[in-house]
Amino acid sequence: MNRFYVIVPLFFISAYCNETTLPEEIPVGAKYDKARNVYYLDEPNRQRLYYESGKLYSDCPVDEAKQFHGFCRTYARSEDRTASEGKYEHGAKVGDWVWYFPDGKIYVKQKFGTRPRRPDSIWLGEEGNEEGPYLRYYSDGSLELQGFYKDGQKSELWQKFFKDGELEYSGYYAQGKKVRTWFYYFPNRAKEAVEVFDNDGKFLSRSIYSPDGKKICEVDSKGASCG
C-alpha cells in the first residue's frame, strides 16, 4: 500500500519541441536538448532552459563541470510564476526546497542534506540526500502528507490525511523500510487495514477490513485467510 508519489523534476515540460527551427522567443545561441525536451543556453557560470514557446523554464548558476551550483528557480510553462526554488551544490539539491501549485500556493516543502547521494536513489526516483521534514499540501492549503528523512531514506513517523483532515494512514519507517504497526483508514474513518512489520522491515501480517468494520482477510508469511 505504497501511496507515496514521486515528484518529477521536468513535470511542466511539453512532449514536443521543434529541433530544427528556433522559435523567435528563444535567445540566439540556444541549443535543443532532445533528451530533456528543452532549449538551453550556456553562459559563463549560468545555464538557462527554455520551453519551446520561448518562456523561461529554469535559471540556474553552474560550476565548472556545468552542474547546477547555487540558488536555482524553475518557472511554470503557461504562466509567469515560480514552480520550484532552492539551492544546489555541485548538482545536488541542498537545504530548503519548495514546489508550488499553479496558483502559487505551496505544494511541497522539503529539506536536503550535504551528504553524498545514495547510489540507488536514481532508480527509486529520489534525490538520495533528503534530510529532515517532508510536507505535502492539497491545493486548498490543507496538509496532505508529512514525514521525515534521514540519510536520504524515509524515517520516523509518516502520516497521510484526507482533505477533511482525517487520518488516511500512519506508520513508521526505519532506513527506508516500513517497521512496527501501520494503520490505514477509509474516508468514513473506519479502519481499512493494519500491517505489522518487525524492526528490520520484515513483513509479519496484514488484516483487511470492510468499510462497515468487518475483518475480511488475514495475511501472514504463510498465506491468506479470507471470507
Structural Rg = 22 Å
Largest sheet: 17 strands, antiparallel
Helix content: under 10%
> Average pLDDT, to the nearest integer?
90
Portion in beta strands: over 45%
Structural class: mainly beta
Sequence stretches where pLDDT stays below 50 over 5 or more residues: 4-19
The total count of helices amounts to 1
The secondary-structure element order is EEEEEEEEHEEEEEEEEE
Distance between the termini: 21 Å
How many β-strands, per DSSP? 17
Globally, the shape reads elongated
Organism: Leptospira inadai serovar Lyme
Protein name: MORN repeat protein
InterPro entries: MORN_2
Pfam family, one: MORN_2
Structure description:
This is MORN repeat protein. InterPro entries: MORN_2. It holds the Pfam family MORN_2. This protein is mostly beta strands and 227 residues long. It has a domain at 178-227. 2% of the residues lie in helices and 51% in strands. The protein contains one helix and 17 strands. The longest helix has 4 residues, at 121-124. It is elongated and about 70 Å long. The protein starts with 30 loop residues before the first strand and ends with a strand.
Core attributes:
227 residues, mainly beta, 17-stranded antiparallel β-sheet, 1 helix
Short description:
By secondary structure, the protein is mainly β.
Write the layout of secondary structure elements.
Layout: E1 31-33, E2 38-43, E3 46-50, E4 56-61, E5 70-75, E6 82-89, E7 92-100, E8 106-112, H1 121-124, E9 130-137, E10 143-150, E11 153-161, E12 167-174, E13 177-185, E14 191-197, E15 203-209, E16 215-220, E17 223-226
Antiparallel strand pairs: 1-2, 2-3, 3-4, 4-5, 5-6, 6-7, 7-8, 8-9, 9-10, 10-11, 11-12, 12-13, 13-14, 14-15, 15-16, 16-17
